[in-house]
Amino acid sequence: MHTNLINGEWVDASEAQELRNPSDLDEVVGVYAIGNREHADTAISAARHAARGWARSGIQLRCDALDTIGTELLVRREELGALLSREEGKTLAEGIGEFTRAGHIFKFHAQQALRAQGELVPSVRPGLHVEVTREPVGVAGLITPWNFPVAIPAWKIAPALACGNTVVFKPAEFAPASAWALAEIIHRSGLPAGVFNLVMGRGQEVGRAIAEDPRVNALSFTGSAATGQRLAVTAAHQLKRVQLEMGGKNPLVVLDDADLQQAVDCAVQSAFFSTGQRCTAASRLIVTAGIYARFRDALLERTRSLRVGHALVKTTQIGPVANAAQLDTNLRYLDIGRQEGASLACGGDRPTLPTRGHYLSPAVFVDCDNAMRICQEEIFGPVAALIHARDAEHALELANATAFGLSAGVCTSSLHLAQHFKRELRAGMVMVNAPTAGVDYHVPFGGTLGSSFGPREQGTHAREFFTQTKTTYVNA
Ligand code: ADP
Which of 143, 146, 451 to mutate to test the pocket of ligand 1 (most atoms within 8 A of CB)? Predict the structure, then answer.
């Protein structure tokens, strides 16, 4: 059994789960502990105990540890990428790509550890000197979802440690294998006991215990909007620092003057790659009148040609849905779309393949109304809604008519229109002639409105959340 890592020791749990491969439900990926409140409590105590020492640790030590972790992630990316594909169902190329990204993230933050900076400022009062420095926050509670089982943990854990915080990490119960592999690598990287702790378990038990514990100073969460909102309330009661990354209902706008092939590529990648299970996926394709029919036909043709299959098979482009609960949600929304009067032009069926898996063919609803539930609620599956817009201004209005604001894209060959959409799209990330999903690791990631709350993640901006500012006055 793969157990929890608490205070530098592997700790057994009385409960465990058999993790099944969504590409082949007859294959057991591994057995993983399901921790409980006590595990969370002991891990938080350990992290609290280690916090002072780690906050004062040398930056070279932090840099070396994070760099060692990054190196191992990169060296083992093929093996670990296959594990990720087996537990989550994304294609092997995507699994390897995700471990590669995790490796790069650790290496980036290894260097960030060396770049801690402060300011020495003259005082307005004679004789005084002012120092502005950044200090670690203390214990960071990190709660992550199943769709990026190693990249999201990496982009929270690496900056938390680089900034001198200790960590209690709870991965998603649906995908603990990549997280456990990462924890095992971190364990061997030379960090003092208690600096990094892994507690696998249910959100309702372990996640809540972490969120509600006053000894946890900062809570960084990625997951559903419903859970995020609940955590915001918990954090507010304790005045706990909180960072939330939640859903999206991201638009990709295709304007009359777009390059058709490029627009279709962007749409297919954004909507269906990683089986549509990305918070930056484009689930609303908003297309203006002059290109609508041509775009629709080309999109349907491309979508029908996508190869759904076992994640480890080389020719597969779309892996299975990650778990049974998500498959149920997707099927439910396909029904909702039909009931709302949207026309399902392709996909949405469950192909029969040599292995028993959660397969679903990519679905396109055409002639949708932006007010429909399938255009307003996050589905998180390979389901796209095509929405007709009269012209560019109407497309912009529809794109912004959403409760979310994570990512938004526009396909156009007009510099003028690209500029206009860059300015006016209400989203934390805007893509011009590029897919809405697929982002760099050295620049900020996050959204506006109902998608995100708190400081941005990733890149140099990550330190905004994982440090707090101290102003010191020295009379000398
Ligand atoms: P998803 O729909 O992606 O599973 P969730 O928000 O349910 O989204 O889960 C994201 C993460 O939040 C998972 O690690 C899950 O265990 C955790 N989680 C779920 N409910 C709670 C909760 N009440 N308190 C803290 N964490 C939770």
Answer: 143
Ligand 1: distance of its center to the CA of 153 in Å? 14
234 lines ligand 1 (CB under 6 A): no
Between CA 242 and CA 329 the distance in angstroms is 28
What residue spans of 206-288 are helical by DSSP H? 208-212, 225-238, 260-272
Residue 142 C-alpha to ligand 1 middle, in angstroms? 11
State the DSSP string of 336-365: HHHHHT-EEEE--S----SS-------EEE
List pLDDT tens digits, range 378-399.
Answer: 999 999 999 999 999 999 999 9
- Judge if the beta carbon of residue 204 lies within 6 A of ligand 1: yes
Question: CA-to-CA distance for 231 and 246, rounded, in angstroms?
Answer: 11
**Taking the complete model, does pTM exceed 0.90, yes or no?**
yes
Tens digits of residue pLDDT in 327-350:
999 999 999 999 999 999 999 999
How far is 89 from 315, CA to CA, in rounded Å?
Answer: 14
Q: Does residue 350 contact residue 324 with C-beta atoms inside 8 Å?
A: no
What angle (nearest 5°) sits at the alpha carbon of residue 173, between those of residues 2 and 453? 130
8 A C-beta contact, residue 206 and residue 39: yes
With beta carbons less than 8 A apart as the criterion, state whether 388 and 287 touch: yes
* Cβ of 242 below 6 Å from ligand 1: no
Report how far ligand 1's centroid is from the alpha carbon of 203 (Å).
5
* pLDDT (tens digit per residue) in 109-121: 999 999 988 999 9
